[in-house]
């Protein structure tokens, strides 16, 4: 038996930068997961994942069962949406969603019937070893499984490794964001389900071992997974130093393997694949139970919540209902955040649905968070660079983003920024650095879209010109062919006329060519003869036509006479 399978050991490496903010996890870390009661109304956005939005396959008035597909994945990177309970589709229209800008998005509204009756479930595959990786990926796609660690990337797409040889699966149980404890409770309460899901994932990608990284401020979770994995030497449980953002993919990989995934590259190129612990539970439920992703665990916390706890919430539940389930708000709550205080964002209201990315609802009062001083000019102290876990130069990114020099922010690796908020947290000038980076990313994406549209328009224009030129050339070729055929026909007619025998030729006599005064007379005679022949041909043709017209008339008269005769 592997020593790694007997006890968690400290992670052997570290990563650049990071901070240790107040954890504030005591509010919910000892509150077991509780299943939230069934609600009467669910709002299901068609786009709650990275990639293409799903396409609705139901219509208003349809009766649906629990687990039924409501919206189908439309692309390789997309995820289906399922009914969280049985009921009736009452509307399909844009609805407010959880977004920093308070936007609306196309959504399906389901009115629950209270029966919670399943539609036909997918076939459970208990013996998953007998199922091919391609079939298992199809099951995950059918079940709408996405990453639950924050990125909500469709899991089936992530696990389509192609020709890459993946040797190591990494399970992310760090949960480094303050206040959030949903993964902690999941690891403590469902370690066996986590390992089953991990084993299925290993079978899918051909991994030989699984490294599980958990921050050392979660001793119960470490002990639970260490105990559950004791009999399987493929699993190695590591305690990771509590330092934000240890749960970042590249940071956790560095801590566990000492591999630094370079800029512009993916972990899979180095034989590594990283999944969140909640994601592999979703894999287990989809494969061995035949259940799509209908719910997730949400930490409902903050000093503004009457009874902070971890709830198992169905996707599409309104956040106002979730807060009410946790006892409602305390007085003076002025901010509701989806996510944690570092990477989350403030909501414009609570009448928006829980989506697959909702790991936490954080309600704060004014006295629970520090005052936000007015931003001051950057003093180039470099504290942000020292703390940046992605080893970037945040101050340079700030200057270029502020100056709208978007080519420069790309050169300084803007898209390697994981938006963890460490730079903003340590900035003595209180600059909202992450806001600048998000703005710059949005502008770069918008410009890329415009370039793409312009390129497509240019390609369409060039294709149109090529098509018109081709049509013109084809018409010219056809016209030339007709001209050549007409010329050949004319030449043949001329040859026939010149070769036609005269009466004297027919009787074997030959007259010498006329000379002198006889020549014009002979020419006139030839012209008259040609006219006579043409007239004779026309008369013969007219006679043939007349005969052809008379035959149907005669037949018609004969038929009418025969019909009038008595039998």
From TrEMBL:
Residues 490-506 have a biased composition (Low complexity). Keywords: 4Fe-4S, Cell inner membrane, Cell membrane, Coiled coil, Electron transport, Iron, Iron-sulfur, Membrane, Metal-binding, Repeat, Translocase, Transport. Its cofactor is [4Fe-4S] cluster. It is found in: Cell inner membrane. Its main location: membrane. [4Fe-4S] cluster 2 binds at residues 388, 417, 420, 423. GO terms for biological process: electron transport chain. Residues 550-567 have a biased composition (Polar residues). HAMAP family: RsxC_RnfC. The complex is composed of six subunits: RnfA, RnfB, RnfC, RnfD, RnfE and RnfG. This is Ion-translocating oxidoreductase complex subunit C. It comes from Halothiobacillus neapolitanus (strain ATCC 23641 / DSM 15147 / CIP 104769 / NCIMB 8539 / c2). The gene is rnfC.
């Amino acid at each position: 038996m592997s020593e790694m399978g007997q006890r968690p050991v400290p992670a052997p490496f570290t990563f650049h930068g990071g901070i240790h903010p107040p954890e504030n996890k005591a509010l919910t870390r000892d509150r077991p997961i509780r299943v939230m009661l069934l609600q009467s109304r669910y709002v299901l956005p068609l786009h709650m994942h990275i990639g293409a939005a799903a396409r609705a396959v139901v219509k208003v008035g349809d009766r649906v069962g629990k687990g039924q597909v409501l919206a189908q994945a439309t692309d390789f990177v997309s995820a289906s949406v399922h009914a969280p309970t049985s009921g009736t589709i009452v509307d399909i229209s844009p609805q407010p969603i959880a977004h920093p800008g308070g936007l609306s998005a196309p959504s399906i509204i389901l009115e629950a019937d209270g029966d919670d009756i399943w539609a036909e479930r997918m076939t459970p595959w208990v013996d998953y070893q007998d199922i091919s990786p391609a079939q298992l990926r199809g099951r995950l796609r059918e079940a709408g499984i996405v990453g639950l660690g924050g990125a909500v990337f469709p899991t089936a797409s992530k696990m389509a490794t192609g020709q890459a040889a993946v040797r190591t699966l990494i399970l992310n149980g760090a949960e480094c964001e303050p206040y959030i404890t949903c993964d902690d409770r999941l690891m403590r309460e469902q370690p066996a389900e986590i390992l089953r899901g991990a084993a299925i994932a290993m079978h899918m990608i051909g991994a030989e071992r699984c490294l599980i990284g958990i921050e050392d401020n979660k001793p119960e979770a470490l002990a639970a997974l260490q105990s559950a994995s004791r009999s399987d030497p493929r699993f190695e449980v590591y305690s990771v130093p509590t330092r934000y953002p240890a749960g970042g993919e590249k940071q956790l990989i560095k801590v566990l393997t000492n591999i630094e995934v370079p800029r512009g590259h993916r972990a899979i190129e180095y034989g590594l694949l990283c999944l969140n612990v909640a994601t592999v539970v979703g894999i287990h439920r989809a494969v061995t139970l035949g259940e799509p992703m209908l719910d997730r665990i949400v930490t409902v916390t903050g000093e503004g919540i009457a009874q902070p706890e971890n709830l198992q919430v169905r996707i599409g539940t309104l956040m106002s209902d979730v807060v009410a389930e946790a006892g409602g708000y305390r007085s003076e709550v002025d901010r509701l955040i989806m996510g944690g205080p570092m990477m989350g964002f403030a909501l414009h209201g609570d009448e928006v649905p829980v989506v697959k990315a909702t790991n936490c609802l954080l309600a704060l009062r004014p006295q629970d968070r520090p005052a936000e001083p007015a931003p001051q000019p950057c003093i180039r102290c470099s504290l942000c660079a020292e703390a940046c876990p992605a080893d970037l130069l945040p101050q340079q990114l700030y200057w270029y983003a502020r100056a709208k020099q978007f080519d420069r922010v790309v050169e300084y690796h803007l898209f390697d920024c994981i938006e963890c908020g460490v730079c903003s947290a340590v900035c003595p000038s209180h600059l909202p650095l992450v806001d600048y980076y998000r703005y710059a990313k949005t502008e770069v994406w918008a410009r890329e879209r415009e370039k793409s549209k312009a390129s497509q328009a240019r390609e369409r224009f060039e294709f149109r010109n090529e098509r018109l030129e081709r049509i013109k050339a084809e018409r010219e070729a056809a016209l030339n062919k007709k001209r050549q055929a007409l010329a050949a026909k004319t030449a043949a007619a001329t040859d026939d006329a010149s070769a036609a025998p005269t009466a004297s030729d027919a009787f074997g006599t030959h007259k010498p060519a006329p000379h002198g005064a006889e020549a014009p007379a002979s020419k006139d005679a030839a012209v008259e003869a040609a006219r006579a022949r043409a007239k004779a041909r026309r008369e013969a043709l007219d006679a043939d036509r007349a005969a052809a017209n008379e035959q149907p008339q005669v037949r018609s008269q004969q038929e009418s006479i025969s019909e009038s005769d008595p039998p």
